[in-house]
Amino acid sequence: MRPSQIILRVSLTAMIAAVPVVATAQQPGRGAASRPPAQIQTQTQTQTQTHTPEPDAKRAPSSIDPDGSRMKWLLNAWAKQSEKLKTLAVSIYRVDRDFRWKDEVHYEGSAYFQSPGLAYLDFSRLKLAENDKKQLVPVPDPKKPGARLKTHTETIICSNDAVWQYLYEGKQIYVFPLAKGERQRALDEGPLPFLFNMKADEAESRYAMTLDKENANFYLVRVIPKLQGDRETFKMALLTLDKKFLLPAQIALISPDGKSTRVFYLDNQRPNKPIDEKYFKGGVYKNWQVVRNPTAEMPRQGNAGPRPDAPARR
Q: Hey, what domains does the chain have and what are their CATH numbers?
């Protein structure tokens, strides 16, 4: 597996969810920040469950943007915003759903990015319980006011010379070295140009983007990947863009088989703030299993596909 494919398969899902954001989006269970209006939410939920993208990834027709000119303007404005960012720190709330098994898992975590290609992503799984409306919600931590009961699950680090993936449940570390020449190719083909210094023409060659809906505060953009490497990671993405800053506030990803989704809520963004270099340095832990330069596909926990711990898929 090429290093560029490692970047795509291991970290694309999580990184694309951390596209630079200035507007806030409410995380489930929190009421402090605003979230996209109900009509945008409903549109996102409906499309993630019912829409089948075009096989050739051509731009789908849009009733509000039939010739695609408004989407082109939006993409150019979005790229200009992205070019301004050199570092980014963001909090993430993630909801994974598998429609076959009626399976739902919630995670919360954080991400740090630094141009031209350093990244740190960390997630913990939340304990859930049904509320009086039969909805799954996080369980508060009785020992920590304002916190939730959770279990540390995964950390991904893209350092100067390797991709490190830490799986805490099995105490496993996967290390994918990146040679000097391969690193640039990985960055070109991976998600980092999409996050930092993203260029509109490059995005157009990689994705088919359609403006599906808009209201006074938000745009809803549908993204269908054109490249095979991206198609192996997600089938379609739905981005809720804040109109004030033209940057994502919420992202829904559909798995390649179309049977599971991941929705990311972004909060507490800190653009262009200094980030400690320790976040971008991988290392080994005592009594952990280390697999360097593995030839097999990495564990799917960091990808958009079904979770590896679902009972029927063991």
A: 3-307 (2.50.20.10)
Q: What is the pTM of this model?
A: 0.74
- End-to-end Cα distance, the chain: 24
The string of pLDDT tens digits covering residues 169-199 is: 999 999 988 776 565 555 555 444 455 567 7
The residue among 233 and 4 whose pLDDT is bigger is: 233
| CA dist., res. 156 & res. 279, Å (int) | 10
Checking 99-108 for CB contacts under 8 A at 24+ apart, the result is 99/49, 99/259, 99/260, 99/261, 100/259, 100/260, 100/312, 101/310, 101/311, 101/312, 103/307, 103/310, 104/128, 104/136, 105/307, 106/28, 106/136, 106/138, 107/153, 108/27, 108/148, 108/150
Q: Which H, E and C letters describe the chain, residue by residue?
A: CCHHHHHHHHHHHHHHCCCCCCCCCCCCCCCCCCCCCHHHHHHHHHHHHHCCCCCCCCCCCCCCCCCCHHHHHHHHHHHHHHHCCCEEEEEEEEEEEECCCCEEEEEEEEEEEECCCEEEEEEEEECEEECCCCCEEECECCCCCCCECEEEEEEEEECCCEEEEEECCCCEEEEEECCHHHHHHHHHHCCHHHHCCCCHHHHHHHEEEEEEEECCCEEEEEEEECCHHHHCCCCEEEEEEECCCCEEEEEEEECCCCCEEEEEEEEEEEECCCCCHHHHCCCCCCCCEEEECCCCCCCHHHCCCCCCCCHHHC
- The residue type found at 68 is G
The reported pLDDT for the residue numbered 150 is 95
